[in-house]
C-alpha cells in the first residue's frame, strides 16, 4: 500500500491517515484471502453433506451469482465512495446526499456480526492449528476411520487443549491486525493462496484413485430436490454471504483502500470465482473419501477433520502432505480472521481515537473471551441450550446458536440493508460513476440489486420464520 493522500474520493470523516492498496492485484488477493477460509474447506462440505448434496449446491451457486456478487460489488462501492471505515463511509455517503445518517447502523450491525463470528471462527481455526501438530508427528499415518474419529472427539472433549489453540489462533490474528494489516497480509496471501489451491488438487487427484470419485461428483452435482428443505435454502443463502465475506462490512473496509481506476465489477467477479472454485474443489476432494470409507456425509462440523486425515494417512508421504495441508488451512483461516477483526479495530481507532495497539487488544481480547463459551459448549456445556424452549432451537448449543444467528440471520439482514442502501438510497449517478460499466451491464446489476436481491432475501427469511 502506498501512502498517497486520498484526493480522488468522496467525503471522508477520517482523522487517520489513509492510503491505497499498492495494486489491483493486492486488493484481489486480500479480498480473496478474506473470502477463502474455513467457510470453503470446512463449512461448505459439511453443510452440503447435511443438506443432501446436489440440490443444495445448485441453490448455493445461484445465491452466489444472483445475490452474493451484486452485494459484493455494492459493498466495495460503498467503501471506495465513502473512503473511511465502514460505519463512517455509510454515514458520509448518506449525509452528503441528504439522507438519514442512521444508515450507518447497518454497517454497525455488520461490524458486530464480524465480531461474533470471529469468536467461534477462532475456535475452529484452533482445530486447524492443532492438526498441524497431529499430522507432523505422524499420528494420522495409516490410521483407521475409527481411530481418526477418536483423535477428533478427543480434541473436542478437552476444553484446555481447545483453549490453548484458540488462544494461539486469536493471538496470530491480533498480531497482524495490531501491526497494520497490509504489508504482511499482501505478501502472505500471494504465496499461500496458490499453494492451497495446488494442495487441494493433490487431494482431488488422490480422491480419483479411491474408485468413488464418480459417486462424489454425483453427490455434489446431480440435484435431488426431494432432499432440499426450506432450512437448506436459508443455509445456502447464509453461506453465500459467509463465504464471500459479505454482510459484515469487511468488503466495505477493503474497498475503502481501493483506487479509483480499478474495475469493481471485474475484481468482484474474480474474487467470487476463486472462492467458489476452492469450495467446489474441497467438495470434490472430500466426498469420494467419505464414500470410500463408509463415512456419513452428514457428519457435521467434524467432516474434514475425519476425511482428509484418512486420505493423507493412506498416501505416500502422507504425513508431509497432511502437515502442509493443515498449515495452509490455518493460513486461509488466518487471513479471514484478520479481516473479521479489522472493521471493529478500524472503527475504534477512527471513532474513539484509540491507537491501533489498544484497539486490537481490546477488541481481540473480548472476542477471545466470548470464544470460551463456544469452547465449553463443545464439551462441559454441551447440554446447555439457552433457547431450547423454542422448538426451532431445540438442542442447539451456544456454539450452534452463534453460528445460526450470525450466518443465517444477521448476514442476510446486513446484505439486505446494503442492497437497499445502494439500490434505493444512493444516487444512480454516484453508482455509475464508481462502477464505470457499459449501460447494459450496469442496468443488469442495478435491477438485480434493487429488485431481485432484496426480494430473494426477504422471501427466504420470512418463509423460514413462519
Ligand atoms: N469468508 C470467510 C470464510 O469463508 C469467513 C469470513 C466471513 C471472513 C466474513 C471474513 C468475513 O471462511
Short structural description:
By secondary structure, the chain is mainly α. The protein has 18 helices and no strands.
What does this structure look like?
The chain has a single domain, classed as Orthogonal Bundle (Hydantoin permease), CATH 1.10.4160. Helices cover 75% and strands 0% of the residues. It is built from 18 helices and no strands. Helix 3 runs antiparallel to helix 12, helix 3 crosses helix 18 and helix 6 (145-157) crosses helix 13 (303-314). Phenylalanine binds at residues 34-35, 37-40, 114, 117, 242-243, 245, 248, 250, 336, 339-340.
Radius of gyration: 21 Å
The structural domain count equals 1
H and E string: HHHHHHHHHHHHHHHHHH
At the fold tier of CATH, the topology name is Hydantoin permease
The percentage of residues in β strands lies in under 5%
Quantity of strands, as a count: 0
Low-confidence segments, given as residue ranges, are 1-16
**Count of helical segments?**
18
Main beta sheet strand tally, sense and closure: none
The overall average pLDDT, rounded, is 87
